[in-house]
From TrEMBL:
<feature type="transmembrane region" description="Helical">
    <location>
        <begin position="12"/>
        <end position="31"/>
    </location>
</feature>
<keyword id="KW-1133">Transmembrane helix</keyword>
<keyword id="KW-0472">Membrane</keyword>
<dbReference type="GO" id="GO:0016020">
    <property type="term" value="C:membrane"/>
</dbReference>
<dbReference type="Pfam" id="PF01741">
    <property type="entry name" value="MscL"/>
</dbReference>
<dbReference type="InterPro" id="IPR036019">
    <property type="entry name" value="MscL_channel"/>
</dbReference>
<protein>
    <submittedName>
        <fullName>MscL family protein</fullName>
    </submittedName>
</protein>
<dbReference type="InterPro" id="IPR037673">
    <property type="entry name" value="MSC/AndL"/>
</dbReference>
<feature type="transmembrane region" description="Helical">
    <location>
        <begin position="70"/>
        <end position="93"/>
    </location>
</feature>
<dbReference type="GO" id="GO:0008381">
    <property type="term" value="F:mechanosensitive monoatomic ion channel activity"/>
</dbReference>
<keyword id="KW-0812">Transmembrane</keyword>
Amino acid sequence: MLKGFKNFVMRGDIVVVAVGLIIALALSTLIKAFTDFVINPIIASLQGGHSLGLGWQLGRAGNKATYLDLGAFISAAIYFLIFMAVVYFFIVLPYRHVQARRGVVVFDEPGPLRTCPACLSEDLPAAATRCLHCCADLPATGGRAHA
């Protein structure tokens, strides 16, 4: 039983996922610090004065519980975009390159699609002979194909 567990844990894809997760968590901490201590002060300075940040006070002045903080939302959106870009460029692209060298295709671009003439679904593979939505038979050639 322990040998089976060891084989499961030592599989290559489990190790790759674990390393990717560790890297993602470390980068998340770094990017969070960047948005908290660089982006947030810049956004808050756009409001001017002695306000809590970029946003509107909905209740009593100075009450953080009733402050609609638009700056925090903008900061979170910037954090998300930076984090996803880092994951894509530093994890997904290198992983795709390594797997391609091994002859394995991962995160492949979708192939050409076609449209069902009966229900007008546009997400059918070009080689499909039957619509997966309405089960209509598709012509062997024809139908609108798009990329």
